[in-house]
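chain below, 57 aa
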Amino acid sequence: MHPPGGADSAHEDHAGAEPPGAETLLREFLALLEAAQEELNQRWSAQENTDCHSDRA
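prediction:
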């Protein structure tokens, strides 16, 4: 048994702390972050294939 105000009610309080729509915003942010990461990877790969890095090999 859990005492009144124990772990169960603390979990419920924490679960209600997120503002409505926070999950949607987080998903949108992660999608944008993933797209930015892909673009940076493409730019990095293109830059590695140019001659400007040949002197570092």
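The CA atoms of residues 26 and 32 lie 10 Å apart. Residues 22-48 form the longest helix (27 residues).
thats it, cya
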